[in-house]
Specification:
Largest sheet: 4 strands, mixed
Structural class: alpha+beta
Oligomer: single chain
Radius of gyration: 21 Å
Distance between the termini: 20 Å
Strand order of the largest sheet: 1-2-5-4
Number of helices: 9
Helix content: 25-40%
Number of strands: 20
Length: about 400
């Protein structure tokens, strides 16, 4: 529950924007972010995807206040109660429709990952439909993972925190980045119906050995042979590692988008054309490692190169060690900090824990009043680090006790 009497925590620049808003909503602490792209001559202040994220947080909470300066370079956010798709909170028929503008250059996973972190602490089940001309379901050049990776490599990890039922991510219509990385006109629905009082404490110290590899090759508005070529190239790299490799092929037509033409008026054009590959490796202890590649909006890269690139990225993620990949590290560490008041432990690769994003997350957690992290060398022969996190015990005050 938010406390509007508290002075806002102060941050600068747009770095870790989504992560800071998520932590503020989970802990109920107001924040103030200044110096958001102040030196940009063409687009100062908040970007379209950041404005869209603020609108999404306002839709799934009750009582949040958002104040943006005239230039858009200063934001003050006071979070409210996380209500999800509760009746009377903006949901229509139990579903919140979130429109993403065509100017958005980030993938839908930019919104899905923070939303999944908020959903277990919601008053009611979370049911959000992402639609509009700016929904991109594939990976992006900005570093966002695809919706397939969120579904296969991030959502299964919630089961380790006792959050496992009534969770589904549907990719209703696929899309890839359009010209200049904008637009896509895809459609994704997240249904998260498992709300808990506290996440359970996590102890994950054994990486195990890779036992299977799964993946999804997708193409939108291009010949299906692109999928077959990506799959063949990826299997050529992965088959020596494990024989249990299966990559599903998903072929879909490109969505149409209504555009304005001075000569002929309104014209329907195909958008979201492209192809990509998402791979996930699972170990004998249930650890997940992922990789994502997508064709650039300008094209020019053959499917064979993308398939080999994705397979090599997956092997690099596995060889880095640890029990969690860089894709899911922030989600796991955040849930560990929000769990019951006990010490959780997870074995992490030095490359992952030493990344700029994870270091910034640890610093922000201290600012928001969450526990710091403890480190020690792993006891096995690897060069990993065991990270200890004391749960803060921030309860879901909206959930009814039964």
């Amino acid at each position: 529950m938010s406390n509007n009497a508290q002075a806002p925590l102060r941050f600068t620049t747009q770095q870790a924007f989504a992560s800071r808003l998520t932590l503020a909503t989970l802990t109920g602490r107001p924040l103030r972010i200044s110096h958001i792209r102040p030196s940009s001559l063409t687009n100062p202040g908040l970007a379209p995807h950041e404005i869209s994220l603020l609108r999404l947080l306002e839709a799934v909470t009750n009582g949040s206040t958002i104040e943006i300066s005239y230039t858009g370079t200063i934001l003050e956010y006071r979070p409210g109660l996380i209500t999800g798709s509760a009746p009377g909170s903006g949901a229509s028929g139990g579903v919140i429709r979130h429109e993403v503008a065509a100017s958005c250059t980030r993938g839908v996973s930019y919104f899905l990952i923070p939303l999944c972190l908020l959903a277990p602490f919601s008053k009611a089940p979370m049911n959000v439909l992402f639609t509009g001309p700016g929904v991109i379901t594939s990976a992006t050049q900005a570093g966002d993972v695809s919706a397939d990776t969120v579904r296969t490599a991030i959502l299964p990890l919630y089961a380790r925190f006792g959050i496992s039922t009534n969770i589904e991510l549907r990719i209703v219509r696929r899309s890839n980045p359009g010209p200049r990385g904008k637009g896509g006109a895809g459609e994704v629905q997240l249904m998260f119906g498992h709300q808990v009082r506290f996440p359970t404490t996590l102890h994950l110290l054994n990486p195990g050995r890779i036992k299977r590899i799964r993946g999804v090759a997708y193409c939108t508005g291009v010949p299906a042979s692109n999928n077959a070529r990506m799959i063949e190239a990826a299997r050529g790299v992965l088959n020596p590692m494990t024989a249990d490799t299966y990559i599903f092929s998903d072929v879909s037509s490109a969505p149409f988008q209504l555009t304005r033409d001075q000569a002929s008026g309104s014209v329907k054009t195909k958008v979201g054309i492209g192809f990509g590959l998402s791979l996930v490796a699972e170990s004998s202890t249930g650890c997940l490692y992922s990789a994502d590649v997508v064709s650039p909006p300008s094209g020019g890269i053959p499917p064979e190169d993308l398939g080999q690139q994705c397979a090599h990225q997956l092997l690099e993620s596995v060889s880095a060690g640890g029990t969690i990949s860089s894709t899911a590290a922030s989600t796991v560490l955040t849930l560990m900090a929000m769990s019951s008041e006990d010490v959780g432990r997870v074995q992490v690769s030095r490359n992952v824990i030493g990344g700029e994003q994870i270091i910034a997350l640890g610093r922000d957690m201290k600012v928001f009043g969450l526990s710091g992290w403890g480190f020690r060398e792993a006891t096995d022969s690897s060069n990993d680090v065991v990270v200890s996190v004391v749960g803060k015990g921030v309860a879901n005050v909206s959930r009814k006790i039964t």
